[in-house]
Amino acid sequence: MASPVQQHPTVTTLLAGSRMETDRGSVAFCAVTLITGRDRTGALRRIVVDVGHTGRRRPLEAALAREGLTPGDIDTVLCTHAHWDHTGNLNVFRSSEIMLSEAERTYIRDPHPNDWPSPDWINGVFDGYRDRLTLVRPGGEVLPGVTLIDAAGHSAGSVAVAVETADGTIVVAGDAIQNTQVAASGRNALVLWDTELAERSIARIRDAADLVRPGHDLPFEMDAAGDFRYTEPFELTLTGLDGTEPGLAFSNPAAGSQLVMPGIETQRPRFPGLA
Q1: What pTM was estimated for this model as a whole?
Q2: CATH number, domain 10-232+253-270, options 3.40.50.1000, 3.30.700.30, 3.40.50.300, 3.60.15.10
């Protein structure tokens, strides 16, 4: 007997995001998310949102295997933005369609020299996939029940992904909302394009979402007072340290802390065609 047509898309964590950083450099573990739904013909489609950097390649392949999948089973890889920590494993998916916003594609052809998450070689990465690269715009439908939200600010062309599930609207936010502190404060942790747009994007996502899947934290629900509840447990094992090393310390950044790229005031004038 044929399986019933799925009425709502589903969302699954492949790799959890983490806000862990160090004073020796960025760990940059972004969330990697699987969306499963059906297109308008009823055909099953699988979308992976963001793919992480190459340091997470083996865990990504293992996470797909736990879902009974291989990279060849993924129809589309949707990049919320082009930063290296979200796109480093694109070459794992050798036959998938790759989606990136038009604005992000325009920007990475000439990134600001201070924009360290967008090194100039990023343009070459996407050039290499141009035969299967689809450029998209906010507001577009990816699948029935899966639409793109304008999330610019952190980067020039960031998009978030709104998924209408059976349990409400889940928004895969990318780095428009990196973590719970960003959602609560309304201030993006790292602004490389425009501070005001970044704040509008946070508000837009919060208004749309019953549950937020941030770029570098666990999925969470948040009420009108700004109180949040994680919906998945934190799991992380540090190796090579036993906790007794002299000089090992732990700290937590203040809520609402923000780094704005030097030279950001030149960004939008350099690209008058972008919002």
Answers
A1: 0.95
A2: 3.60.15.10
